[in-house]
Please model this.
Amino acid sequence: MRRRTRELQVMTMWHRLLSNINENHDQTLAGSAIVAIGTALLRDRNYFFWPPEWTLFMNDKRLDLAIILLGLLIAFDSMLIKRHRGWRMFILIVGAWTMWCLIGIQLGHAIGAGEFRMDLTVIGEAVISILCLYGIYQS
Model:
C-alpha cells in the first residue's frame, strides 16, 4: 500500500512538472537556446575578434558561464508554478537584454570588421529575445 502511494506521488509530481513545461514551452525553449549559445561561446575561444582591444574581455569564460547559468535559470523556472512573477519577469528581462547585447556585438563585428559570419546567430538571438519578451507578456 505504501509503495503504491509513493508511485502515485511520483506520477503526480512528473505530471505537474510536464504540465508546467507544456504551459511555459516558450520559456523552456528560450532557456534551452540560451544554454546552447553559452555552450557554443564557451567552446569557441576566438568567437569575438573585433575590436582587438576587447577580445580578452568578450571571450572570457566567466561571461560564457554566466550566459549558461542564465539559460539554466530560465529553463528551470519554466518547470515551476507561476508563484514568483517578479523573479520570472526579472530573469526573462535579463535574458532578452543579454540577447540584444550579443546582437549588438555581432552587428559591431559586421560593421567594424567587415565580416558578417554571424548572420544566422543574429536572427536566432532576435527570435530568442522575442520568446523572452513573450514569456514576460504571458506571466
Summary: The chain has a mean pLDDT of 82. The helical segments are 2-23, 25-43, 55-58, 61-77, 85-112, 119-138. The CA atoms of residues 13 and 60 lie 39 Å apart. The first helix runs from residue 2 to 23.
